[in-house]
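Fold it.
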Amino acid sequence: MPESKGRKKAAYTPPPTTKGERKVARLGSPSWLAPTMVALFVIGLTYIVIFYIAGSQIPGMRDLSPLINVGIGFAFIAGGFVLATRWR
């Protein structure tokens, strides 16, 4: 009875690696995020404080209702909080 010949497997060669194509994951936040976040907090707080101290003397604030003026200040503060959730 004839003997079967064994299969010859090719030696394993790993795929070529190219070091230039690797993408490096960036850890951390963009450099603009923290200053913008702090600026929005400060602008919102300053707007509310100025409205309560001198709101009746400033033409733009005088024309708006108090609820809208406080809402504008809180909108800036809320924008700061939105950016704070993306800060790492």
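Residues 44 and 73 are 4 Å apart (CA to CA).
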